[in-house]
Structure to design on (322 residues):
């Protein structure tokens, strides 16, 4: 998503967003056979709507690849192309409840679907980073950001207190980065753990911000919902981590990924959104909040740019700057 508001979809009276959809953008994959398909025709969902035609670029750094699927609903994965690749937009988009997908034709002649966030009319991902870029979301909290953790439904090893401890350690990474140098005093970010809980991250508008597991979010690694985003000030955000996607990711990279590292990386990124950070527009800026490359499982350490944006949102005493 270029901005939080772009991929907002209505769900009853609530609002729903997903932030780690970039898990479908993978580090350069060894499965070269994915590019041997020719002339495949993609599935167009009934809810697809007209879009624009013409050349687009996979606007990612060249060391990253974007995944293309025959269907934006349930796959399968058919090809992966590096940043800078030229594709042809075929005039259809689809919103899956989390983000927009664009139908394209890849260089092998396959029709496929790619997350629209990763396409652009110009290739800019190799441009120098915007060092002082501001990437704050349009909503904020009025006071303490209390959250709890429900480990129910997690994979073995992260279905109990270990998951609670992992989330609290991820929150600690943001406290640590905020405390470096002048500005926010140590421990004053308003992120406050309430420990383990039984509330569900699927329950919206219950007044409890819950971090927990979803059975499977399909092509998304994590989703975030808030029921009152239209008010500007939010009082609840729920984070859902896709157990199914994590299992599939680790099955694909059994020798280079670990469960704890990948989930920790995802949670750090999601808590950055809870604190009010968006995805940077500059694709080359070092940031835990980048909206691509999450399958590398290396987003666990916020950067200098992330800290600068925290200081734009929180004053020296931890107060929120809308």
């Amino acid at each position: 998503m270029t901005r939080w508001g772009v991929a907002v979809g209505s769900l009853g009276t609530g609002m729903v967003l997903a932030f780690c959809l970039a898990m479908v953008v993978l580090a350069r994959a060894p499965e070269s056979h994915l590019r041997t398909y020719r002339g495949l025709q993609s599935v167009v969902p009934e809810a697809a709507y007209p879009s624009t035609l013409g050349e687009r670029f996979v606007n990612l750094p060249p060391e990253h690849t974007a995944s293309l699927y025959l269907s934006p609903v349930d796959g399968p994965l058919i090809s992966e192309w590096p940043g800078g690749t030229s594709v042809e937009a075929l005039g259809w988009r689809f919103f899956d409840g989390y983000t927009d997908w664009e139908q394209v034709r890849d260089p092998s002649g396959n029709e496929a679907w790619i997350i629209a966030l990763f396409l652009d009319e110009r290739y800019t991902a190799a441009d120098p980073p915007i060092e002082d870029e501001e990437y704050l979301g349009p909503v904020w909290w009025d006071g303490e950001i209390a959250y709890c953790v429900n480990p129910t439904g997690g994979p073995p090893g992260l279905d109990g207190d270990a998951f609670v401890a992992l989330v609290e350690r991820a929150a600690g990474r943001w406290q640590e980065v905020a405390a470096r140098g002048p500005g926010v005093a140590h421990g004053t970010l308003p992120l406050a753990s309430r420990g383990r809980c039984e509330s569900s991250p699927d329950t919206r508008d219950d007044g409890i911000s819950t971090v927990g597991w979803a059975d499977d979010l399909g092509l998304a690694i994590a989703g975030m919902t808030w029921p009152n985003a239209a008010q500007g000030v939010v009082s609840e955000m729920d984070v859902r981590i896709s157990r199914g996607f994590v299992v599939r990711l680790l099955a694909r990279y059994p020798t280079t990924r670990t469960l704890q590292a990948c989930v920790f990386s995802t949670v750090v990124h999601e808590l950055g959104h809870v604190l009010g950070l968006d995805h940077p527009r500059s694709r080359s800026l070092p940031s835990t909040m980048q909206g691509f490359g999450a399958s590398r499982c290396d987003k666990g350490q916020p950067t200098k740019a992330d800290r600068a944006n925290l200081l734009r949102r929180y004053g020296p005493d931890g107060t929120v700057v809308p």
Remarks:
- Helices lie at 161-178, 243-252, 259-274, 304-313.
- Residues 1-33 have pLDDT under 50 and may be disordered.
- The chain has four helices and 17 strands.
- The CA atoms of residues 230 and 255 lie 44 Å apart.
